[in-house]
From TrEMBL:
GO terms for molecular function: oxidoreductase activity. Gene3D superfamilies: NAD(P)-binding Rossmann-like Domain. The keyword Oxidoreductase applies. Keywords: Oxidoreductase. This is Uncharacterized protein. Signal peptide: none annotated.
Amino acid sequence: MRRGIWDCIRDQFTPQPPVVKADLTGKTVLVLGANTGLGFEAAQHFATMNPGLLILACRSQSRGQAALERLKVNTGCTTAEVWIVDLADFASVKQFGDKFERDGRRLDILVLNAAVLADKYEPSKDGRETALQISCLSTPLVALILLPTMLKTAREHATHPRIVYVSSEMHYWASIPKHVIEDPEILKTLGSKEYCTTAVMATRYHVTKLLSILFVRALTARLPPDSPLIVTAVNPGFCHSDLTRGLSGIVSVLEKLFALIFSFSTEVGSRQFVFAALALEDSEELRGSYISGSKIVEPSDFVMSAEGKKIQDRIWDETVEILEKVDPRVGVAIENYLSEAVVD
């Protein structure tokens, strides 16, 4: 599928459906990046549906606690908690996984809302470009560590848990250069200081959102056909939020101008998270799908192409190789619950 700028502008002026509602009694919902913006608004929506446990996964204890207090005042929810995880630090993600093993009960909805929009190279604690690590390594690490719990939840409660990976329509304009594709280690190259020039960082957000869709499709292809777990990628649309705080100079000025004219509020954008988590119950069409405007739409031509499928499998293999070294639970989860990719 191809999309142009006028398609995006039209969508930004298209009224969005109201938020989907459901009874979440007894269920556990986990939202990454829940202290601000889209994540906070999605958490607020879930908080109104009587969740058994609502986990606000945040990097900062103080900001997370402030968000929790706002959420309580706004919704009256008494079952929400703040859990700390810094996605720019693999050690923190491992500790988060340890805490879930100790304190987690079940997990029905996992919203992988994590991204950095930056225009210059900044290394993570693990020596990779931070935006790439947060969006394309630590976020999949969370998903794979928690995969056994979600499948156990499905078995014990006869439910269909969902993983909602936040992507963007910007993936339609993402590309991975030929010389990077020809490199045996695509992610290593994409995350290196040498590669991350100013020009490269200008489109880093686009590429991370493309990689998020490839991960969703790769994971879905490796789940058994009758798996109760449903994994989707979702586009919230162009929303003005704290995500853009890392921009500077003329880019920051232009973003603020475009946001003033075209953007959704974060509340409106967050409705897409809730739709992906709750709508179209048990629908087979949802598996591995890309959701935008409260409907399933086709992702980019590259994603759907034979070349895209090859890159998808290569990046999956590299992602797994990296993450197995970070946390052995990744290898255990893959061995016990996933299989070779299903060939179309």
